[in-house]
Amino acid sequence: MICLGQWKETFKAEQRESPVKTEWAETLFKKADDISGELTDIRRQIHRHPELGFKETATARRICEKLKDLGIPFRTGFGKTGVVGLIEGKAKGRTVGLRADMDALPVQEKTGAAYASQIPGVMHACGHDAHVACLLGAAALLKSMKDQLNGAVKLIFQPAEEIDQGAQAVISDGGLENPRPDVFFALHVDQELPVGCIGLREGPLMGAIDSIRISVTGSGGHGAMPHKCVDAVVAASAIVMNLQTAVSRRVDPVKPTVVSIGTIHGGEAENIIASRVEMTGTVRCLDPGVHKMIQGIIDTNCKNTAASLGAGVVVDYQRLIPPLINAAEMTDKVKEACQAILGSSSVKEAPISMLGDDFAFFLNEIPGCYFRLGAKNPNWEKVPTLHSDRFDLDERSLPIGASILAHAALLSLSDPLAA
Hints:
CATH architecture of the largest domain: 3-Layer(aba) Sandwich
Helix content: 25-40%
């Protein structure tokens, strides 16, 4: 069993010196320590039995069993497999939402761990098993302190984050309603941060994710007579190059944007000029204004480039996820919670990333904060990266994540503005 144990002694002196104190910090920290072994067991059970997006039936069943044991009412079926629990406090007030994603990835695990995946070709290679354990831990902590809640806490266990569809499915099925959260929090394990730290940033944190499929058409012919053809390969190549000007000359350079073409398929033989080329790519950006206009820029760029070479083009542009933007007030709540529990130096500035998370859909509707939970073991010689077949994490991060989620919720419900 892994628990805080010796690790917490490292932070004890700094915790006493922390400029931020609340009446709950010590209680939460102790309660989290007490259930750390249970959280590890939950994480490992889920890790052994990973499930892909919208197929998380066994995972959802384990969540429901735990919520039932805690005496927390819940509803199921949001986004097919999603589970929503509700902890109501002693008094009426606003509602805090806490979210954990629960799907795995199509990866064959190679960690060799005793708790390695037992499902061929499927693995929790992104830490969602840990996210579920942290939220169930937060649920246990908050349930034990429900008489101190001036409002309610909504627990959302969300499917299908890895395929960018789960959050919208939960929203479409009414998972945010009755009651609707006023603020939202979520975490993600971070292999670059040592256990005992969190990564935090106000404002844009993660990029929007859009996908593009570009079909270029020309007229084929013999490779020795290009003047009698419209070469789709040449047109496609020009489009790839000119798409970079969609960023460098049409988007404000202080607003980071990425357009990357990942696949190109065209042609049948070395001496035949291709009549058709298919390309796919990804678009990432941080600014909501850029996100609104980039589709039009790319569409115009592709059409004008193709037309200049006599080719035709069809651009299929799919908006998948908006930028993930942390609200100032909620970011401050997470910072306050972390400082009170772990000490002032535990909060690190999270780097901006062009990766995405569909928690952004929740933050599009409700102010909140998404933070990074340090999960790096100091004894690792090589850090196992997210989505790799050797991904793992330091399980001492689990009670830390649970206590910070719980504390952020308590702080939000105690805010005078919440009344």
